[in-house]
Specification:
about 120 residues, alpha/beta, five-stranded parallel beta sheet
């Protein structure tokens, strides 16, 4: 079973994503901050990180840098799902080895979930 870590600051959205993921047979973990996500990564063998860039305290891109700099996490698959996507930010994220960069309002939530679940 796939284990996906959803790092999303909007609690209602993260719970909806978790619910839909679990209906597809995916074991989903929810984190509303980078700090909480790091605690989950220390305890669980996560297959994919669904990462929003707008997070409290530590931004999504800063969190991605922490993940890439940690020998135990550096090869984790990451998909960024964010409300915004400037070309510069997309390029920077791709250089950091993400699988995909999805702008939330450009796709239906169900389609994003299917894409993440099959990554």
């Amino acid at each position: 079973m796939n284990k996906i870590l959803i790092v999303e600051d909007e609690k209602s959205l993260s719970e909806a994503i978790k619910f839909k993921m679990e209906h597809q047979g995916v074991n989903a973990f929810v984190s509303n901050s980078a700090e909480e996500a790091m605690n989950i990564l220390q305890k669980e063998d996560i297959d994919l990180i669904w990462l929003d860039l707008k997070l409290p305290k530590i931004s999504g891109i800063e969190f991605l840098k922490i993940v890439r700099d940690n020998p135990a996490w550096k090869d984790k698959k990451v998909i960024i799902v964010s409300a915004s996507g400037s070309d510069d930010m997309k390029q920077k994220a791709k250089e950091m080895g993400i699988l995909d960069y999805i702008v939330k309002n450009e796709m239906k939530l169900d389609d994003i979930i299917k894409r993440a679940a099959n990554a």
